[in-house]
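Side project, low priority. Logging it here so it doesn't get lost.
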Amino acid sequence: MMNIIIPDVDYQLTAIRAQGAGGQNVNKVSSAIHLRFDISASSLNEGVKERLLALKDNRITDEGVLVIKAQQYRTQEANKKDAIKRLHEWIAAATVVHATRYATKPSWGARQSRLAGKAVRSGIKSMRGRVRSEDKY
């Protein structure tokens, strides 16, 4: 995992009112934070940008802007730190390149043992049938 530094000019922080119950202060104080990160205009390298834009994340708008809403904490400063931390984690997760998986075929021995097991099971099930008498006259 790479250590990526995101300059402050790459994202915008906006204070908004938090949702949910909160008592007398909730309608007066804007403690929640909207973090907007324009992926294509950022200073990240092109490979990371392509991986970020390819993610199926509902927080990415049609214009390629990631919107993170942080409202877990009661103070604006704590929500700012939380939003920036979540942005760093999200980008760090996208920088990990997974190894390509190549399809393989089962070996001849594996196929033979699978078919032998099926034959044994078939024999067991065929013995469960009703016993019929061949000598009816």
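Brief comment: The domain at 8-95 is CATH 3.30.160.20 (Double Stranded RNA Binding Domain).
Revisit when time allows.
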